[in-house]
Structure formats: C-alpha cells, structure tokens
Amino acid sequence: MSRGKKIIIGGGSGWIGTALGCMLRDKGYDVVNISRDPSSSLTWSHIEREGIPPDTYAVIQLAGASMIERRWNDERKHILYDSRVNTTKLLTKAILRSSNPPNVFVCMSAVGRYPGTMDSIFDEESTLPPSTHFAGRLCEDWEAAAQLPTHVFTRSVIIRTADVLGPGGGDLPYIVTHFKLGLGGPMGSGRQFYSWVSLLDACRLFVYAVEMEHVSGILNAISPQAVRNAEFAQVLARVLWRPALVRAPSWGVYLVLGEMAQMVLEGAEVRPTRTLHTGFTFQLPDLEKALRSSLDLP
Q1: Which residue, 196, 122, 126, 117, is CA-closest to 162?
Q2: Largest Cα–Cα distance in the chain?
C-alpha cells in the first residue's frame, strides 16, 4: 500500500523528523525532506516557486526552531514564529494552488495551545479561550496557518504534541544532567501537569494520521497516563538512582529561563481522548518505561 508513495517533510532533518523519516522509509515510503540548502533536491524556495511536487502523496510539517535552545528575546521569538507559522503558510498556499494536491497534510502543533490551569482537564474537543502567553499564541497562529478550506481534496490533520521523550534529543538530556549532579527535583509547586509522549508513539501517530483515511482534525500526541511535575521528578530520580530533593522555586526558574518558564511552571491535565477514539493505541504509555527506553536503561 505504501510502496513508493512520496512523502515530503518540512523539518525532516530534525530529531523528530529523522526518526519519523526512518519509520516511513521502513514502511516503503519515498521520503523527501524540504531543505534550506540550495543544493538539495527539494527546497523551501522550490516549494514557494513551483509548488508541491505533483506526485506527492502526503505533506508533513514539523519545521520549527528549538523552543528551549535559548531565552526568548524579541529576535528569538521572531525566529520561533517564522520557522513554524510562515513555513506552514507557504505549504498550505502551495497545496491550494496545486493541480494535483496531496492526499493528506499533517501539521505539528503543541500542547502549549492549552491553558496552563492546573486543576482543569482539556482534550481535543475542548473550547479554548484565546491564549495569553507567547507559546500559546504561537500555537494558535501555527494551527490557523495549517487550516485548509473544506472544499480542498487534501485531508488535514493537526497533531498537538507534548514534550517528546526519546534517545538523543529533546529536553530530557538537560533535565538528566541536573539529576545526575544531584540537583533534580520538582519545578515550582510541582502540582502542574507534565505533558509527555514517547518519540516512538509520536512518530507512530504521524504515520497513523497519514495512513488512516478516517482521521482528520485535531489529535493530541500525549500519553494517556497523566503525571504531575513532582511525580515526573520522582520517577526520573528512581530510574537514574539519584535524589529528587532540590525543589526549584518559581522565582528561580523565571530568573534562569525568563518567559520560557511558563512552559514548565504551568500545565493542565491534557488527555488524548479523540486520538484514542480514532483507534490509535500507545505502545509506551508508562512514564518509567518510556524514560528507561529513552535512556537505554534496563
């Protein structure tokens, strides 16, 4: 069924994109990454000039500069916005003017779209107020840029992705370093929910969205087993055989991270209700097993 079908990926050279590309190639797809390198076979400039290649079966949009690489000054916010929203607009415009549009367009978003109210529960069907912080507004505009008119042939899926846990990437290596130094523990009150998903399941959900014709709209890529930040700290400490006694006060987190601190100090319980109702199953829903797999520990 998948043999030889072309899938183009924006952000395919990143950590998640590399893992997803390998999974798709293993299933027989012809995967082509959209690159900024002018010598590449498919570039963003090519998409802007000539549109989506006519034999494309699916377009996947993962492009976006790292949210945790550095503090969010105005220049960094512009980079975060442009690398997500403007590249997504470019792809949707290319799909709309295509004479032979792709079968499906799958765009990443993030659970940062949900408010950070600690004692609230949200899922894909929740009515959400306008976001009041940068990460939320970024997700709002990102998702708006990914919307296709209902008359377009192309099926559209938006995947709100939680913090991804897997080997070799994400923010887990930074967290592990602190724990190994004996500096691990809850962030702020520790009562905020920590939204996470394994790299394996995140990639599987993108593949699922490509292949399942009945899937469209919003899906949450988030483990169905919700944990609060303090519980995450305890589980990681147990996995690493390290203490989790150093609570980072909220003021200290803001001092170090600036506005980015909202991402770790706030967090509602978010559930993958609609994702599960489509028939998708998570292979690594347990946090301890996901951490052990990510860190290559027995």
Answers
A1: 196
A2: 60
